[in-house]
Design brief:
3 helices; rod-shaped; about 50 residues; mainly alpha
Length: about 50
């Protein structure tokens, strides 16, 4: 998660000023990243089984 935030130019604290619900936004981003990682893992497993 840290690498993602650093790649968009900052950490959690630098995102807070942009929204009242900063924590909710970060939680949503973390959920999206987790889902993307899960899809990638599933895709690798499917390819391995072919």
């Amino acid at each position: 998660m840290r690498y993602f935030l650093n790649s968009v130019g900052g950490d959690e604290r630098s995102l807070y000023p942009f929204t009242r619900n900063g924590k909710a936004v970060i939680t949503t981003i973390q959920a999206v990243v987790t889902n993307v990682e899960a899809v990638a893992t599933n895709t690798q497993a499917i390819i391995k089984n072919l």
